[in-house]
Task: inverse folding
């Protein structure tokens, strides 16, 4: 199953559970794409309000800190459009509500390439299989196919449908240098899915 060549991609949407997931997982590739002139946007399901270990930091303050950090980190790799969905950190489920929220962003951004977290548990790397990651991966897959392309799914969104043609499943978390993340992503392409309706 072939990936679209970068030259055929105008827009990429990266969907993750937490602020910092992208920076640990795929920011190097994002930098490569933005350098090539591709418009990359982020969709963050939570704002990381359950992060950190300091109980003196209010959860409201934690959201402000993590949104500020993520926005700054995105800017470093050429990304300025961030879509915050505001679901509670640590309690993400692959619900219809989440599927609709991700579908709305897909329909607005209209990305040819979607980068998703893996919905499959990795027993060799348990930390990468945080329940929020699995739920976000499952909801993202459902949003790409069939929700965002089905005119009868979530009519309340009142947005035109869109068919993203490729999904990249982000399976491994690694460093953020361009070369190491690119290798990670290249390995992940074995799990890239071709649009079943466009064979
Ligand atoms: Zn995470």
Result:
């Amino acid at each position: 199953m072939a990936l679209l060549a970068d030259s055929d991609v105008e827009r990429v949407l990266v969907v993750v559970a937490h602020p910092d997931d992208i920076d640990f997982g795929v920011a190097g590739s994002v930098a490569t794409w933005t350098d090539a002139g591709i418009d990359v946007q982020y969709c963050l399901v939570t704002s990381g309000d359950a992060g950190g270990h300091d109980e003196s930091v209010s959860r409201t303050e934690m959201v402000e800190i993590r949104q500020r950090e993520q926005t700054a980190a995105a800017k470093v790799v050429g990304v300025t459009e961030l879509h915050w969905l505001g679901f509670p950190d640590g309690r993400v489920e692959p619900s219809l509500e989440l599927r609709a929220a991700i579908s709305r962003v897909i329909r607005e951004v209209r990305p040819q390439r979607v980068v998703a977290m893996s919905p499959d548990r990795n027993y060799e790397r348990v930390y990468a299989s945080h329940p929020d990651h699995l739920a976000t991966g499952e909801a993202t897959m459902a949003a790409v196919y069939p929700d965002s392309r089905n005119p009868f799914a979530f009519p309340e969104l009142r947005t035109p449908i869109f068919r993203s043609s490729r999904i990249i499943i982000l399976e491994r978390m690694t460093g953020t240098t361009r070369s190491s993340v690119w290798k990670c992503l290249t390995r992940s392409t074995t799990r890239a899915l071709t649009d079943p309706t466009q064979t």
